[in-house]
């Protein structure tokens, strides 16, 4: 359960103000059909994060425990810095614009999430917790917690969130995870 809850909380906080959240806001404004957009986000995130968690678990098994803790520690510290950099609303695929709400969301979210901080966090969390299912479920739940309210309530929420504070909290959580990874006892 720890893997699920840590993954959910970390991704939910890190996702606030992220380009995929901005994409959710733009899709909601364009299509005005919240449920196909929510379903598209869910399907794209499940596919993307399941693949990312699988990569994280495979890398952890291949690299070994001692090297992995240093890689994880460094990755989480880098993620902390990345959280402090605001995303721009215009970063996203343009090809899905003519599709319906579900297909546009599915394609756009899957593509935009490739190499995104939440995907990289999913890789690192799966390597850290060695639980593909719990991490995938947790990071997907975190994405949904951050994005569904944006799709449903959009602009009213975006104007009220202190994004600098949210980014700082997400960065602090990644630093804590990085330090914990550095301090994990080695297998030797």
Structural notes for this entry:
This protein has 188 residues and is mainly alpha-helical. Helix content is 81%, strand content 0%. The chain is built from 8 helices and no strands. The chain has helices spanning 2-15, 19-31, 34-63, 65-83, 101-113, 117-129, 132-160, 163-183. α2 crosses α7 and α4 runs antiparallel to α6.
Which features characterize this protein?
single chain, 188 residues, mainly alpha, globular
Give a concise summary:
The protein is 81% helix and 0% strand. By secondary structure, it is mostly helical.
Shape: globular
Give the termini distance in whole angstroms.
26 Å
Gyration radius, to the nearest Å?
16 Å
Helix/strand order, N-terminal first: HHHHHHHH
Helices, strands, pairings?
Elements: H1 2-15, H2 19-31, H3 34-63, H4 65-83, H5 101-113, H6 117-129, H7 132-160, H8 163-183
Helix pairs in contact: 1-6, 1-7, 1-8, 2-5, 2-7, 3-4, 3-5, 3-6, 3-7, 4-6, 4-8, 6-7
């Amino acid at each position: 359960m720890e893997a699920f809850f840590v993954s959910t909380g970390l991704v939910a906080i890190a996702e606030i103000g992220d380009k995929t959240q901005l994409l959710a806001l733009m899709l909601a404004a364009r299509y005005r059909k919240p449920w196909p957009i929510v379903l598209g986000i869910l399907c794209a995130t499940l596919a993307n994060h399941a693949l990312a968690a699988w990569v994280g678990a495979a890398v952890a098994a291949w690299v070994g425990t001692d090297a992995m803790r240093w890689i994880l520690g460094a990755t989480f510290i880098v993620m902390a810095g990345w959280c402090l950099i605001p995303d721009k609303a215009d970063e996203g695929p343009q090809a899905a614009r003519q599709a319906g709400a579900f297909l546009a969301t599915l394609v756009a979210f899957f593509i935009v999430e490739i190499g995104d901080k939440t995907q990289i966090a999913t890789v690192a969390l799966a390597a850290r917790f060695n639980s593909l299912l719990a991490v995938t479920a947790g990071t997907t739940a975190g994405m949904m917690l951050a994005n569904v309210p944006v799709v449903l309530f959009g602009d009213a929420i975006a104007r009220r969130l202190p994004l600098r504070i949210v980014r700082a909290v997400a960065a602090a959580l990644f630093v804590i995870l990085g330090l914990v990874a550095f301090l994990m006892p080695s297998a030797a």
